[in-house]
Prior knowledge:
Blueprint (H helix, E strand, L loop, with lengths): L4 E4 L3 H14 L10 H8 L4 E7 L2 E15 L2 E13 L8 H15 L4 E6 L4 H10 L3 E6 L18 E7 L3 H7 L17 E3 L4 E2 L5 E2 L11 E6 L3 H7 L1 H20 L2 E9 L2 E8 L7
Parallel strand pairs: 4-5, 8-11
Antiparallel strand pairs: 1-2, 2-3, 3-4, 5-7, 6-7, 9-10, 11-13, 12-13
Amino acid sequence: MPDPVIRLLESPEDMTLVEELQRAVWPGSETDIVPAHVFIAAIHNGGILIGAFIDDQLIGFVFGFPGIEFIPDGPRPKHCSHMMGIKPGQRDSGVGFALKRAQWQVVRKQGIDHITWTYDPLLSRNAYLNIAKLGAVCNTYRRSEYGDMRDGLNAGLPSDRFQVDWWVNTRRVERRLGKRARGPLKLDDFSQAELSPLYTPLISTSNLIRPPDGFSPLEGHLILAEVPTDFNVMRSEDFALAHDWRLFSREVFETAFKAGYLITDFIYENKRSFYVLSHGESTLQE
């Protein structure tokens, strides 16, 4: 596949293309489609909408807008990256990384150093992109962030989300996005003494992994939390099991974040998926 052409989307015609792509990415709920006039209002007021094209066909987009976060020193600006959609069939082609890299460049030119967005913590493909490849970190878990969602990808499960922090000027992020980007992390990169699994999933009768009854006490600088590798397949084959994973992972991550742990990496190896959590913030700049 040829490399996509990445460009800012600014015209009403561009917005119509994004409307149509949303219907392919999130089928089943027309009321959840962001209309063209909202995109136009946003980009005329500091928002950013970027598209990826192959042969003049829109195959992906990322959309965000300026926001405000409140810290002890008072309010400060950030960029809220609200949506990224990739056409089915193009999702493992590097388009998402290219779009986020373009977003990173434009936001830095606006003088903003912090981008946040949310994603489902059980979607391993998204976790690998956001945490491992882009260098975002996370210590915020939001229960039922969007209420009851009606689209074909989210209906029926609590819409729990991670909110990630992308500190765009850090060495950590610059190293992930540079020409000599870090390769995939492996379990063998750590010793058993360094990395402690919180739990070992069970295998269900349908050969899907099942959450255990509990998890170990949170100890050590680095801990490991395994999640399903293809949560969407699990949900379609065993909805009750997917719901069990939602509630179990909610308890794991809320407990870890409360104890001062921060998600700093993600490992995909031998068709298994693991979050790496670090105690404290010493790895933010790595």
